[in-house]
Design a protein that fits this description.
By secondary structure, this protein is an alpha+beta fold. It contains 17 helices and 18 strands. Belongs to the class-II aminoacyl-tRNA synthetase family.
Length: about 500
């Protein structure tokens, strides 16, 4: 048996945690981004763009669920021995940009950005190493009115994308309140920073593991189904009860009374409750009820740089997961106040607040609801080539169509007529233009409506009849080319 010849060809393979995107997905995403952008600009926000790469120390060490400096970040060393990293979100680069251009920017500075971010972590279902975010931020405004505006803008954005009330909610909490509760259970001070972070991560898993799972993470730790053990915060039973009482506080008129009792004696905690009350007053005054925006003490947000109000956009409708089980999309975005982030680069503190949308996750949710489609759009009209010595004639036809505003391309391959029709079909072309020598002599062109042809040919039993009837193929004078093609293209659209 002859051995297979050796080959030096590379194996085509995609790195883990990354995806290729086809035309339908790209165009659907662009439509969604345009709708989001329209709402952001209506609120007075303007675009800015920062690079994908920043100095590592400028990004800081704020990633959620990471225990070591720079873990979770793709980093490399430049030729001048400076460490650089791919950005893991859009907020830290914005803080650097504002600090670097502080005197030239209007304050408050209102901007939005859309772009790719990168996380060096283990990929999993729905968890990617590269994903897109769309952020809006206000820097230089300390008032809770700026936080309230973020929540209102997020609600308006989701409705602009076709979501209805009852299908989403913007949940609002305040890190100061949580800090007050941790102070009340003895976790104040720099020496307890690590345990406070463990508590934050535990509470952030409430939706995933439920109260009992969080109780384990607040205590000695939790073992998952695979046997992996996550070390807990080591709180005693009384402290765990207080933390669970905090996250379980009902989102109703009595919430503020309950929260004040939990943070009694903590100035920071009481200040946070006051800010939540002011936010609720403002959103109610603007006509946003609890069906759209509500106070919810269980919202934590994983990033460590938040210093005040935090918010999360949650989708409430159910869908079906890959196992056929009922599931919710859950959070598709969030944000909060980060008054210390810009101040890392300056001598004074600079207040900031912002919101980030997870573009891919929101796209999946809108697709599940039928609000947006990533199905391939109609492709260009294809002008076929029957006589290779008449390329100039075919190129002229293409230009006439393009000048009329019709997407068109000349077939540039080397195949014959049948393969050219198959090519046009794969391109999802609405129609093809055909002109052989006989048509040229008569001054006419054949135009084949591919979509209609598929429908009609389904009813034709044999090839002889198909060739005789030429389903959905019409002959028109060359002078009528644009009008005839336009009718097909517009009918297909």
């Amino acid at each position: 048996m002859a051995e297979k010849p050796k080959t030096n060809a590379l194996k085509a393979r995609l790195p883990r945690g990354l995806v290729d995107r086809h035309a339908g997905t790209i165009k659907a995403t662009e439509r969604m981004l345009a709708a989001i952008r329209e709402v952001y600009e209506r609120y007075g926000f303007e675009p800015v763009e920062t690079p994908l790469i920043e100095y590592t120390d400028a990004l800081g060490k704020f990633l959620p669920d990471q225990d070591r400096p720079n873990e979770g970040v793709f980093s490399f060393q430049d030729d001048d021995e400076q460490w650089l990293s791919l950005r893991y979100d859009l907020t830290a680069p914005l803080a650097r940009y504002v600090a670097e251009n502080f005197d030239a920017l209007p304050k408050p500075y209102r901007s939005y950005r859309a772009g790719w971010v990168f996380r060096n972590e283990k990929p999993g279902p729905g968890r990617f190493r590269q994903f897109m975010q769309f952020d809006a931020d206000t820097i230089g405004a300390a008032s809770p009115a700026a936080d309230a505006e973020m929540c209102m803008m997020m609600a308006d954005t989701l409705e602009a994308l076709g979501l209805e009330r009852g299908q989403y909610v913007i949940r609002v909490n305040n890190r100061k309140v949580l800090d007050g509760v941790m102070e009340a259970i003895g976790l104040a001070g720099e020496e307890n920073a690590g345990r406070r972070l463990t508590v934050l991560r535990a509470i952030d898993k409430l939706d995933k593991f439920g109260p009992q799972g969080v109780r384990l993470l607040l205590g000695e730790g939790r073992k998952d189904e695979s046997g992996d053990f996550t070390k807990g915060a080591g709180l005693d039973d009384a402290s765990i009860d207080k933390m669970l009482a905090y996250v379980g506080t009902a989102s109703d008129s009595g919430a503020f009374v309950s929260l004040r009792k939990l943070v009694e004696g903590s100035q920071s905690g009481l200040s946070g409750v006051g800010e939540l009350e002011e936010i609720e007053t403002l959103i109610k005054a603007a006509g946003y009820g609890p069906d759209r925006i509500k106070i919810d003490p269980s919202v934590v947000r994983g990033l460590e740089y938040y210093t005040g109000p935090v918010f999360e956009a949650e989708l409430l409708f159910e869908t079906v997961n890959e196992k056929g089980e009922p599931a919710r999309f859950g959070s598709i975005g969030g944000g909060g106040r980060y008054d210390g982030l810009v101040g890392r680069f300056r001598s004074e503190s600079v207040p900031g607040t912002g919101f980030s949308i997870g573009v891919s996750r929101l796209m999946a949710a809108l697709s599940a609801l039928g609000k947006i489609s990533a199905a391939p759009e109609p492709g260009p009209v294809v002008v076929t080539v029957f006589d290779r010595d008449r390329m100039g004639d075919y190129q002229r036809m293409v230009k006439v169509l393009r000048d009329a505003g019709i997407r068109a391309e000349l077939y540039l391959g080397g195949s014959g007529p049948k393969a050219q029709l198959k090519y046009a079909d794969k391109r999802n072309s609405p129609c093809v233009v055909i002109q052989g020598g006989d048509e040229k002599a008569k001054g006419v062109v054949q135009i084949k409506d591919l979509a209609l042809g598929k429908q009609m040919s389904a009813d034709i039993a044999d090839n002889a009849t198909w060739r005789e009837e030429r389903p959905a193929q019409v002959e028109v004078p060359e002078s009528d080319l644009v009008a005839a093609v336009r009718r097909i293209v517009e009918g297909d659209a």
